[in-house]
Write a structure and sequence with these properties.
The protein is of the alpha+beta class. It is built from 16 helices and 52 strands.
Length: about 900
């Protein structure tokens, strides 16, 4: 009895347990931050331990509130927009009140307040600190009264009748920097209760979360016997596997569709698709099918969920649905599903071909796949129309594979002509990725092409996209190895992007997402990099064990689940990736249209015997045992008979035993690029004038790189550049620090000669709207909807033939910038020939006097008279359907060369 008491007592003292753990056994894997043992995971003073295959305990406590700086950074906001001061200019206030209550001085809107008070060593912001913020908005209100509008630092006008609300945004909870979502945080709205132009609010800063940990223990409560059972010599892996299986069952709604996460209700196209690819296709095939069909609209097309600027075609990664649908077919062999899915994908892809494919680069336009929170991965100056114009690595990898899937499906259905067409599409995208996005000097692909009329490459890595280029064979075998060796990894995993963006809180920025880590794990295995594989396994198992759930994400800086803007437990794609470690990596089960291929990958640290039983495949039940390590099979047995190949045909039926013996030969030496988490410099804000360009100095910048028309022009240590207009020029500035990390390029500053640009008022080409909106440039504006001005022709007379950029000044008040589905779009014809698409994203709910520019469509114009037609076509249907509306002010025509 005495021995048992001591054992329990030691477990209740985690710090002691950690020491004894280290003495009792060597870690399987260890870094400076945490270590993996056979039965536990230890991160400094925190320990998660597998008591059995069905029970885990953890003493993890989030440090989120303990070390918050009392220096807070914030801005005020009109209508939930970042419109008080230029990027990088924030108010600074030190909150050190001993009473727990503080008041700010009166801060004038647009005038930076900088508190230079010194903060004593080891003094942090108190929990539940009350702060009253006071804002003087009288100058803004006076301008609105006198002129009818206020002009922001950007030159945008906010009309008196359009001032809906005043908010505060910032870096300390409950404040957020997500301007688009301020409207969903009532505590951040400021009030002028007595109408004197002074707005106030009281914030409770650094309020502790209800729970600094998840649950202290987990034990299996659901019956998981219907699913594959896993047993190994490593209790921690067995317990995490079983926890994930149980969470999978919790992720199924009563209507037999997937729930995205505990805090995310409903079915989301990309979430369920990536989850199905990872493991849900074979574990939950019927639920997978139901969920995929839930994301098909009445027109038989794949739904792009609500998102930036009103969803599709600003966001375009819905085609990952196609990859998931084909994965499901390979597992079930259901020909009816194959035909149904093929028709749905074809309907959707035909719209994409006409609206988002760029013939100049061969790439596809649209927002980063899953990275759909604008400033989290894009510079703040980029409007939704700019994001539509960008060409992202991950999204292009998705469209490449979707076209390959369609080629394979068409071949299976006997349509060889279509198979060749989709293969040709895929080849163009693959070539575009390798020509435009590859960075030979870094050994991995860049994030995306971005800009206005001229695009440049963001050199940041983009984790999901890098992984998909390896898995989909977009990168050749040499580049695959380079990508895995050279893409930066942080202490707790591969962050979504690298380097991070300064001043943006963790979510996609400065965060690790376990589902992305799972795809990176698969890619590392494909490239044969054992070091990267073991690192990824550790980076997936650590949070699952310590947090006792499969979290959506965690902070890259410290590995904590608190601190990101949103985070869900029981996250579908996280648990799907976790489960895939056993089946898809360790046992190497790969589905083809003909059967199962086995390509195990067992790091030497996980050498040993293991089994998976009750593994269902079509009409067969497989019981698999395996021993050894490595990624080469020495012998493969089916029902006791050695087989010449490691393959199970789809025709196999009944119960069968499989035995796999690995060669247990050491992997070749491999390397990874594990680096400290780092932030790039801030984005410069560039002004153009008669004397050239100027910008504010950026903290930490060693020098500045100047771009002209997307191409590097020169470097300078100064903050100005004397340059004269010559034709048309787009200039951008990139700040570079001593480590060589680059900021995003600044918003393009345009210098052009007189006569390069002409503006054509559209009320001359169509009936003028009678709506009472403000801010248009001519005598009126034109309303377009599906049945209103569905075709408008404009006569354009140019003095020289050449390449021109066409864009529209428009407004779209049908929804906010960050969600809903009412992005308007129209086909552009030049002299009768289809040339491109004008995309007119939402600019703010009810903000019809908020005017901006669409994307630019480039076209050759002939000298003299040209006819530009803006037309609504069936393939311009957005995700809403009935509402495809915008107000058009003018057409801008710019001669590029």
């Amino acid at each position: 009895m005495e021995m048992k008491k001591r054992k329990i007592f030691i477990f209740l003292l985690p710090g002691v347990l950690s020491v004894l753990n280290g003495l009792a056994q060597q870690p399987l894997w260890a870094s400076k931050e945490f270590a993996i043992y056979k039965d536990s995971i230890v991160q400094h003073e925190f320990t998660a331990k597998a008591m059995s295959a069905t029970e885990l305990v953890s003493n993890y406590q989030s440090p989120a509130n303990g070390y918050v700086s009392p220096r807070i950074s914030f801005k005020f906001s009109l209508n939930g927009k970042d419109n008080e001061m230029p990027p990088g200019m924030n108010h600074q206030l030190v909150v050190l009140s001993k009473s727990g209550y503080s008041e700010s001085p009166m801060i004038i809107f647009g005038k930076q307040y900088n508190d230079t008070s010194e903060i004593p060593v080891d003094v942090f912001l108190a929990a539940n600190a009350k702060l009253k913020l006071k804002l003087d908005l009288r100058q803004v209100l006076s301008a609105m009264k006198e002129k009818g509008y206020y002009t922001t630092f950007r030159g945008d006008r906010i009309y008196k009748e359009d001032l809906k609300a005043v908010f505060v945004a910032g870096n300390t909870s409950p404040m957020i920097w997500d301007f688009d979502n301020l409207v969903n945080h009532p505590s951040l709205e400021m009030e002028d209760e007595d109408g004197d132009g002074i707005y106030e609010t009281v914030l409770t800063l650094n309020a502790p979360q209800d729970k600094q940990n998840t649950e202290p223990d987990w034990h299996l409560t659901k019956d998981i016997s219907a699913f594959p059972q896993y047993h190994s010599e490593y209790p921690i892996t067995d317990a995490i596997y079983n926890l994930s299986l149980e969470e999978m069952q919790k992720a199924i709604e009563p209507d037999s569709t997937f729930r995205t996460g505990r805090e995310w209700a409903g079915v989301w196209t990309r979430d369920i698709s990536y989850s199905i690819i990872l493991s849900m296709a074979y574990l939950q095939p019927k639920v997978a099918e139901n969920s995929l069909l839930r994301k098909v609209n009445k027109n038989g097309k794949i739904v792009q969920d609500t998102g930036t600027g009103g969803a599709w075609p600003v966001s375009t990664d819905r085609m990952i649905w196609a990859v998931a649908a084909f994965e499901l077919y390979k597992i079930t062999g259901d020909r009816a599903w194959l035909k149904k899915a093929y028709d749905i994908i074809r309907n959707s892809m035909e719209d994409d071909l006409k609206n988002i494919y760029d013939p100049a680069t061969g790439l596809v336009k649209g927002e980063s796949s899953f990275l759909d929170w604008r400033e989290q991965t894009y510079p703040k100056w980029m409007q939704p129309a700019d994001i539509y114009q960008s060409e992202n690595l991950g999204t292009n990898a998705v469209h490449f594979q979707a076209n390959m899937v369609m080629s394979n499906m068409a071949g299976l259905l006997g349509d060889l002509k279509s198979a060749a067409k989709y293969k040709s599409n895929a080849d163009r995208i693959k070539k575009g990725i390798n020509v435009w996005l590859w960075q030979a000097g870094k050994g991995y692909y860049g994030q995306y092409l971005y800009g206005r009329n001229y695009l440049t490459l963001s050199p940041r890595s983009e984790a999901l996209g890098e992984a998909l280029t390896v898995l989909f064979d977009i990168a050749d075998s040499v580049r695959q190895k380079q990508i895995i060796e050279h893409t930066p990894l942080t202490s707790f995993g591969i962050s979504c992007i690298y380097p991070q963006i300064p001043g943006i809180p963790p979510y996609h920025n400065n965060a690790v997402w376990p589902f992305v880590q799972s795809f990176w794990l698969w890619a590392a295995a494909k490239a044969g990099n054992e070091k990267a594989v073991m690192e990824s396994i550790a980076d997936i198992y650590r949070p699952a064990a310590l947090f006792l759930t499969n979290k959506e994400n965690f902070v890259a800086d410290n590995g904590d689940f608190l601190g990101t803007q949103i985070n869900s437990s029981n996250m579908l794609w996280s648990l799907s990736g976790n489960i895939s470690i056993i089946h898809k990596l360790i046992f190497g089960i790969h589905y083809t249209t003909e059967g199962l291929e086995f390509q195990p990958f067992v790091p030497e640290q996980l050498d040993g015997k293991r089994t998976v039983s009750n593994f269902a495949y079509r009409r067969a039940i497989l019981n698999i045992e395996m021993e050894g390590f490595g990624n080469r099979i020495a012998s493969f047995y089916l029902d006791g008979k050695q087989q010449p190949v490691s393959f199970i045909p789809s025709s196999l039926a009944g119960n069968h035993r499989i035995r796999i013996v690995l060669f247990s030969r050491r992997f070749p030496l491999s390397s990874i690029d594990k680096v400290p988490n780092a932030f790039s410099p801030a984005v410069p804000s560039v002004l153009s004038g008669t004397d050239g360009l100027s910008w504010q100095a950026i903290e930490g910048a060693d020098y500045y790189k100047i771009l002209k028309n997307g191409i590097s022009l020169m470097k300078t240590k100064g903050t100005s550049l004397p340059v004269k207009a010559s034709g048309y020029g787009e200039y951008q500035v990139v700040a570079v620090n001593r480590q060589g990390l680059e900021s995003f390029a600044s918003e393009p500053a345009i210098l052009m000669d007189t006569g390069v640009e002409q503006v054509i008022e559209l009320e001359r080409a169509a009936a003028k709207s009678t709506r009472d909106y403000k801010g248009y440039t001519g005598e009126g504006f034109v309303e377009i909807n599906r049945d209103t001005n569905s075709s408008i022709s404009i006569r354009v007379n140019v003095k020289e033939a050449g390449l021109y950029a066409l864009d529209l000044r428009y407004s779209n008040g049908n929804g906010p910038v960050n969600t809903e589905n009412k992005c308007a779009l129209r086909t552009v014809l030049v002299n009768g020939k289809m040339t491109g698409t004008f995309v007119l994203p939402q600019r703010g709910k009810g903000e019809w006097s908020n005017w901006g520019y669409s994307n630019a469509v480039k076209s050759m114009l002939v000298k003299g008279l040209n006819t530009i037609t803006i037309r609504f076509e069936s393939y311009n249907e957005n995700m809403n359907g009935p509402v495809n509306q915008a107000m058009l002010d003018n057409l801008r025509v710019i001669r590029l060369h």
